[in-house]
Structure formats: structure tokens, C-alpha cells
Amino acid sequence: MKQGSALLLVAVAAGALALVPILAPPFYANLLVPFYGYAIALLGFNLLFGYTGLLSFGHALFLGLGAYTAAVLAGLWGIKAFEVVLLAAALAGLILALPLGWLAVRYRGIFFGMLTLAYGMLAHAVLFKFYHLTGGDSGMRVPRMHLLGLEFSAYNKFELLAGPFYYYCLTLCALAAFLMWRIVRSPFGLHLRSLRDNAQKAEYLGVRVHQFRLAAFAVSGIYGAVGGTILGFRTGLADPELVYWTHSGHLVFMTVLGGFSSFLGPVIGALVLTLLQDQLQSLTQYWRLVLGAILALVVIFLPRGLAGLAIDAGQFLGRRRPAPSAASTTTAT
Amino acid sequence: MPAAISAIANIVIGGIFHAAVLFLVAAGLQLVFGVQKIVNLACGSFYALGAYFGITLVNYGLSAGLPDWMLLPLLLIAGLLMALIGPPIERLLRTVYDRDESFQLLLTFALVLMFQDVFRLVWGANPRSLDNVHLVYGKWTVGDFSVPLYNLLVISAALLAAILIGLFLRRTNFGRLLRATAENRAMAEALGVNVRTVYAAVFTLGTLLGTLGGALVVPTSAASLDMAVEFVIEAFAVVVIGGLGSMPGALAGAGLVGLIRALALVVYPEFEILAIYLIVIGVLLLRPSGLFGRPAT
Questions:
Q1: Are residues B20 and B75 in contact, defined by beta-carbon separation less than 8 angstroms?
Q2: Which of A116, A266, B160, B212 could in theory staple to A255 by disulfide, Cβ–Cβ 3.0 to 4.6 A?
Q3: Which of B95, B114, B297 sits opposite A289 (nearest CB)?
Q4: Which residues of A224-251 are buried (b: 16+ CB within 10 A; e: fewer)?
């Protein structure tokens, strides 16, 4: 019953998102494209953070990897099929995540965070300093790519983003979410949660802690790279800012804003932050001040994020319906 | 003096100057982490705050007719005044002391975001600097090697700070309470240590070290909006290399990072930050406790 209503909500939300390009001005569809990139990346990020208990402060590294993979494949080598680029980015994410993760998963807590932060900064230094390879701070161009073999030459870039590419990303995000849902509900996901809650006990029970953490790291790396490819396609640029530590901080921000203890929390966080940032930027140049204040308030008062708030509200309403008299007495006191 | 030696002397002095400022900020980071177990991402923002306010106070003071040699005292005052934001921020952090460390980290990240816009609001988006006032104390010249005396004063100030912190932690009663709290908070509390006061004092001292570092560096380099997020990364490198929570570690780490940076800038500029981060990763992998820290758990 509860799962059914949650599924219904998700279906309604997906339907509403599918209607955005039709009902709203194309500006909004264009605005939501990076949301899909972040949503995919954060689904992976939260497998590591929410489900495995490892807070990476350098996860933007993988988003950068995705964008730069697109820049190299489509820009330098002329491979225009976006599907090929996505697969290559996923593969690159896996290939990079395995050695980095292998070294990192021996630690948890603050040491894991420090090490991943150092990874990100190392990547930033490489991208920034090796100008002849990476274009330095001006980055690399990510050209338009073909979707499902179609060029969409009748569309300009903006129409492409607000139309076909929007639906492409929506579908990709839905697939990624479905896959992740299966992953966290599988025995594998259960293993991850058990070693998050008590790694030592899990190890006694035969869970190979490091292998499972490494697998979670690899999956999150793949998701990050795929998300980064979408970001690169949208802006047409892969630049070192993508891997800077403040960008990693923003990923954590979105996750906590939405709530890392629920499956869809990070997705909600990405959506809210994308819309909020756009609104704030049009209102004031001091939007970071407002965002920082919001983050502080969420951290202090809503440790389970917006999703936690929604669940509490749902339970409150659910409790109220069968016994309205009890609820009215509690509100009265 | 032969050219080669004076070139080396330039690198070394430049490196030590950078190390001196790094040490101040990193020491603040270490103190807060050692006692409160909070990784304070905002320490770079305190550094930037000290720098910006240092410029304002020096400009104000000098235009009000104070003699030029008041530069250093004015900067020290600027650092001290800005440390007053320590207690209210500690009060804010107090709300998440008993939560997971990711929340503490995020709250300081929120501070980083907010500070960045406070700087933009108060001091504008363009970099601000004090032009060449640091030459008021003259230069120390040997052959074709010369260094502004101001830089040497800052290096001495940082060394003095290191000695004072060491004495404070080892020889004073409050220092002992502080180390006891760092060692075992619950036990210290049970024995009657007022942990709340200790935390407030530690955080304020950490803030002071950051704002002082920023105020002292600003005569030699501009204050900009990016300095907070850039510097915190370097301070992290220092504490990781030296060992989290260790004061001698902060000193050694700052010296190492400062010298590598100065050397790389001359020898192979592409390698500057890269070298530091390779060392950081190497240290984390081979000896996560750092040079002077305790074994990682």
C-alpha cells in the first residue's frame, strides 16, 4: 500500500516532468537538462554516501571525466553518436574508479573524504596546468552529438536541448533510477547497508567489506561520468571548474538538501537546487549567501532533508485521516 | 654572492614566507580538528576575512595620518578584531556537535558559500591590494639577493605563534584541559572540565590564527574572492601531510608545502599544485596518520 502510493507519486512526477517541454516555455526545459545530469550523478553518489556511508568530497571528478570524455570523443575524434559517448564515459568512469576506489576504500569517515578531495584537486591541477592537452582553464569544446543516430539538424542548439535532448535525458534518468532501485533492493544493496551500519559486524558475518565498498565506488563513478556527459552536452564545454572541490561540495549540498536517507532524496535535492539557484540568480547577485543560509538551515533543522520532511508530512496526514479527533486534540494542545 | 646561491636563497625565503602563513591557518585547522573533531572548511574564509579587513584597516589608519611603520600593528589588530566572529560561529556549529561528521563538514561548507558573498558585498568582486606598503621596513640586501624586511617579520611572527601555542598547550592549565578534552571528551567532562568553554575558546583561537594569517599575507599579495577556497585546499594539504590534529605536524607540513611550491614555481610551474597533491595522496595511502599524527582508524 505504502509502496504503491510512493510509486504513484513517482509516476505523477515523471509525467509532470514529461509535460514540461509542452506546457512550459522552452526556457524551463532547457533549465532542467542539467537537473537530469545531476540526478543521475547523485543517484550514484548516494549509493556511496547514503547506502555505504562513505562521504566523497571529490565526486565531481567523475562528472568532469564524463564531460571531458565527450569533449575528446565527439570534439577531437569526431564520434558523434551520443550513445557511444555515454558508453565510453561509463567505461571511463569504471576504469578510473577501480584504482582510485581500491586505494580509497580502506578508509572511511574523514580520511576517505580527504583522499577523495585530494583526487579531485589532483585532477583539477592536471586539467588546469596541462594546457596543450586540456585547454587549461578555458576547457575543451563539447560539440553537438547525434541522438539515436538522428542529427536533428532542423533544430538549433536551444531547441535541441529543450526538445529531443530533454526527453532523452528524462528517459536516461528514469532508466538510471530504475537500475539503481534494483541495485539498492538487491542483496548487494543490503550488504552495503549492513557494512555502513557496522562494518566490523558485517565482516564477521562474511561480508567482504573492501570489495563491496569498491563495487559501490565503481557504480557511483559510472553514474557520475554519465551525468557529467549530460552537463557537457548542455553547456558545450568541459572545463576544470567541473572537478573543483566546491563543485563536489555542491553535489553533497544537493544530496543533503533532498535527504540522503531516502532513495529519491538526492533527485529531489537536485531538482530543488536547480530551480532555486535559477530563481535566486535572477533576483540577486548574492545568491550564494542565500544558498549558504539555506544549506545551514537544512543541516541544522532538517537532517533528513526535504524527502524526510515529505515523509513526515505524509505520515502525519496518513495518521490524521483515520482518526481525525485524535489529531485535532494533539494540534489543540 | 654568486647568482646561483642568491637564486636558491630567493626560493628558500619565498617558500618559508609562504610556509609561515600556511602554518598559521593550518594550525587553526589542527586545533579545531584536534579538540572538536570538526574539519573546518571555513578556515580559508577566515583567512580571506583577515586579508580584506586588513586592507581596510591599513588604508583607514594610514589615511588618518598614522606613520607607515604602524602597518604591522594595524594588521595584527585587524586579525584580532576579525577573530570576534569566532564565538558566534562556534555557537552555530554547536547545534551539530553530536551529529555525524558529514553534517559538521557541510555546515562549514555553508559558511564558505556565505562568506564568499559577504566579501563580494562588502569589498566588491575585484581583487584588492595594498600597493608596496610592505617595503616601509626596508629591504635586507646581500649582493643581488634581497628580501623585504616585512617578510622576515612575518616569518618571525609565525615562529613566535608556533612557540606560544606550544607553550600554551604544554605549560598552562587551560592548555592541559584542552589536550585532555581532545584526548577523551567524555572523561574530561566527567572530571569537571567545562567542555563548552573549551570548545568556544578553541574555535576562537582557530579563527584568530586564520584571520591573522590572512591579515599578515595581504601586503604581499592581493585579496580576492577565490583566495578562501584556494587556500583551504592548501591548508588541507598541510594538515594531511603533517598529520591530522598535530601541531608539530602543521609546522613540518607547512614548511614542506611552502618549499615545494616555491621550488616548483621556479623549476617547473606546471608541477606546483600537482606535486603537492601527489604528496598528499602518497601520505594518505602510505602513512595516513601523517608525519606526526596518530594512526588512522
A1: no
A2: A266
A3: B114
A4: bbbbbbbbbbbbbbbbbbbbbbbbbbbb
Task: Kindly state whether residue A250 falls inside one of the protein's structural domains.
Answer: no
Q: Which of A80-84, B41-45, B140-144, B160-164 has the lowest mean pLDDT?
A: B140-144
Q: What is the pLDDT of residues A44-98, one digit of tens each?
A: 999 999 999 899 999 999 999 999 999 999 988 988 889 999 999 999 999 999 9
Return residues 252-271 of B near A (CB < 8 Å).
269-271
The neighbouring-strand residues paired with A146 are: A81
CB burial string A174-211: b at 16+ within 10 A, e below: bebbeebeebbeeebbebbebbbeebeebeeeebebee
Of B99, B233, B296, the CB nearest to A121: B233
Asked if residue A329 is part of any domain, the answer here is: no
Is A84 inside any structural domain? yes
Q: Which residues of B touch A288 (CB under 8 A)?
A: 113-114, 116-117
Contact B229 A253 (CB under 8 A): no
Minimal C-alpha gap between A136 and chain B (Å): 11
Is A102 part of the contact surface with chain B (CB cutoff 8 Å)?
Answer: no
CB B42 within 8 A of CB B86: no
Q: How many domains does chain A have?
A: 1
Residues of B with CB below 8 A from A303's CB?
99, 103
Q: Which of B101, B111, B278 is opposite residue A109, by nearest beta carbon? A: B101
Task: Identify whether A75 is part of a domain.
Answer: yes
Cα–Cα distance measured from residue A107 to residue B288, given in angstroms and rounded to the nearest whole number: 9
Contacts of A244 in chain B (CB under 8 A): 229
Which residues of chain A are within 8 Å of residue B111 when distances are taken between CB atoms?
292, 296
Complex ipTM value: 0.86
Q: Which domain holds residue A173?
A: 25-244
**Using an 8 Å Cβ cutoff, are A85 and A77 in contact?**
no
Q: Give whole-number Cα distances, A29 to A33, A154, A171, in Å.
A: 7, 18, 14
pTM of this structure: 0.89
Place of cell 548542455: A234
Q: Count how many pairs of residues, chain A against chain B, have C-beta atoms within 8 Å.
A: 119
Chain-chain contact of A111 with B296 (C-beta, under 8 angstroms): yes
Question: Which pairing describes strands B139-142 and B145-148: parallel, antiparallel, or unpaired?
Answer: antiparallel
Contact A253 B116 (CB under 8 A): no
